[in-house]
Design a protein that fits this description.
It is built from six helices and two strands; from the N terminus they run ααααβααβ. With 198 residues, the protein is mostly helical. α3 packs across α6 and α4 packs across α6. The protein binds heme C.
Amino acid sequence: MADSKDRLLDHDADGIREYDNAAPGWLMWMLYGAMIFSVLYVAWYALSFGDDDYGIELSGEQVVEKAKVQQFVADHPIPTPTAEALLAGAVDPVVLERAAARFAKTCSPCHGANAQGLIGPNLTDDRWLHGGKVTDIFGTIVKGVPAKGMPPWGRALKPDEIASLASFIRSLQGSNPAGAKPPEGDPAVPEPLPARSM
Ligand code: HEC
């Protein structure tokens, strides 16, 4: 057939027939355009990831409000408890019970029900990516490691709850849970626990 334009197809849907023509160029270009745009758009977002404004330009008022929040955060640092206090918590059943409940709810999805490691590292071994002293652990929980997927908890949990979690993690040292993730980071000798006071 010399000219295939406007050739009717055989099928018939209640009297509605269809030509065997290519889709119009403008429609195809809209489709290709949308595909190219979506790739560039996702790339733009991916590249601005980690920039906490996600590449969005803040208005003057938003810049002022953001600076106020940053100033407030800077003016109210979360004080790190002493190592003695955190280690005392690691042998205090009341502290540990509370922390275990919080850990199960908030931390276990990434660290495993027994802190054996899942998405996040094993917290029961003697190797640490961010320091194994109880005060280091407290600091890691407060600040998180946002670039590596560990959220900062300093503003989401109360300081005494974070302290109880640091104590709890110290209490799990050497617990050797089933299915433990291989150790990551540098070795650290766990700080000695105080004798349990009754
Ligand atoms: C969304 C997943 C996620 C959640 C929820 C999470 N973590 Fe993490 N955590 C991680 C990842 C990933 C790392 C490893 C960071 C790195 O590679 O530097 C990590 C690291 C840590 C570390 C440092 C370990 C080391 O080797 O130095 C501690 C301590 C920790 N998390 C405690 C907690 C506690 C306590 C909670 C609950 C309040 C919690 N995490 C909730 C993902 C998570």
